[in-house]
UniProtKB/TrEMBL annotation:
InterPro entries the UniProt entry points to: CFA/CMAS, SAM-dependent_MTases_sf
Gene Ontology molecular functions: methyltransferase activity
The UniProt record lists the keyword Hydrolase: no
Gene3D superfamilies: Vaccinia Virus protein VP39
Annotated keywords: Methyltransferase, Transferase
The protein's Enzyme Commission number: 2.1.1.-
Protein name: Class I SAM-dependent methyltransferase
A Pfam family that the UniProt record links to this protein: CMAS
Single GO BP term: methylation
Segments crossing the lipid bilayer: none
Organism: Funiculus sociatus GB2-A5
Lineage of the organism: Bacteria, Bacillati, Cyanobacteriota, Cyanophyceae, Coleofasciculales
């Protein structure tokens, strides 16, 4: 028996540590009971803050810096607030309408100022790449997309599908670099699609060319007359509850020699994780898959290469978004969020402050972004 198997055999009897899925019934029940206590404590602090209890940023940062490393290093099972986080759900996506309402149907003016809205780099709600020396957010987002182009081996003339294309930033940038590439974007958010439709009427946008096609709707319902050379998906798989079904669908769109590139938040802990706070206020049914989750699903697509991007990159991205958010309060407070602006601001500041520290903890080695290159199995 190897030392690893001996450790796993011991850990299955011990609550809270290691892989919660291999626990004995008693250890599992004890672990889940402890999770409820942690969830209640997390929400008590968060709800007090968003309801007006004044807590200096320095105190919140200190709180996050104290507890996050302990949880990631020693008690990762406490970071899985719901049983469904630990495994695939029955549906490809969960809570998609709630997600649209809380995230992607927010006032576009607020999102533009927070995420950045340039002539080439449109709002992009995913990690920017800072480890190559980018000087600002726009440059870091360009370098991130350049990195995707290199890893996916995009070449001129490729026909590419972007699953969950956001506001069209990635297609617009890639179309600007390759005059014969064609793009199809799938997006469930009506508001994001309206933004792209506006760009499709703008002669200065590369989305206005006949090389870009927009499909508004669910991946489950999508059908295309042609198969694609490349498929990419940036960030969307945090909202996908069933990798098996998603990979089966994407594989049906892919040419025999085609490639798929997936970029997601991922964790190098034994379990997938989530948060009661983000589930309620930010990302309904969002989860952060374990770094081994994608490679372990190889029925229709198989992983041929993967990369872990240190959490420093996303922490720095969130820090820039937080600064942009704070710097544009005069504009933001004039917009309609469906709730009192002061409360909305505290909800989002708590989230942004938390994620700056969350991705920075443990030197970024536990919580970062995973990238996966896949082909037909």
């Amino acid at each position: 028996m190897t030392s690893t198997s001996v450790l796993e055999n011991i850990e299955k009897y011990i609550p809270l540590v290691g892989d919660v899925n291999i626990k004995t019934p008693l250890a599992y029940k004890t672990s889940r009971g402890a999770v409820k206590v942690v969830n209640a404590a997390q929400m008590a602090v968060a709800e007090a803050y968003i309801n007006g209890f004044e807590v200096p940023d320095a105190v919140l940062r200190s709180l996050f810096d104290t507890f996050m490393p302990i949880l990631f290093k020693y008690f990762p099972s406490l970071l899985a607030p719901y049983d469904w986080v630990l495994k695939e759900t029955d549906h490809l996506a969960e809570g998609s309408r709630d997600l649209m309402k809380l995230q992607y149907d927010l006032p576009q003016a607020m999102l533009n100022t927070m995420l950045g809205d340039g002539k080439l780099i449109y709002p992009k709600y995913s990690m920017a790449l800072w480890e190559k020396g980018a000087a600002n957010l726009e440059q870091a987002q360009m370098q991130m997309i350049d990195d995707v182009i290199e890893k996916l081996e995009i070449k001129d003339g490729d026909n590419i599908l972007d699953f969950g294309c956001g506001w069209g930033c990635v297609p617009n940038y890639i179309l600007s670099k390759f005059p014969n590439v064609k793009f199809t974007g799938i997006n469930l958010s009506h508001e994001q699609c309206e933004y792209m439709r506006g760009k499709m009427q703008d002669p200065e946008s590369y989305l206005s060319s006949e090389r870009f096609t927009l499909y508004e709707g669910d991946l489950n319902d999508a059908f295309f007359d042609t198969k694609f050379d490349k498929i990419l998906s940036i960030g969307v798989f945090c909202h996908v509850g069933n990798l098996t079904k998603a990979f089966q669908k994407l594989a049906s769109f892919l040419k025999e020699d085609g490639k798929v590139f997936i970029h997601i938040i991922t964790v190098r802990t034994p379990n997938n994780i989530s948060s009661v706070y983000t589930h309620k206020y930010i990302f309904p049914h969002g989860r952060y898959w374990n770094f081994d989750a994608v490679p372990s699903h190889n029925k229709d697509l198989k992983t041929i290469e993967r990369w872990y991007l240190n959490g420093y990159n996303y922490s720095t991205t969130f820090a820039n978004w937080l600064k942009n958010f704070d710097d544009n309060q005069a504009t933001n407070k004039q917009l309609d969020y469906g709730i009192e602006y002061a409360k909305f601001r505290r909800i989002w500041r708590f989230y942004l402050l938390w994620f700056v520290r969350n991705f920075a903890c443990c030197n970024g080695e536990y919580n970062g972004n995973g990238q996966f290159l896949l082909t037909h199995a």
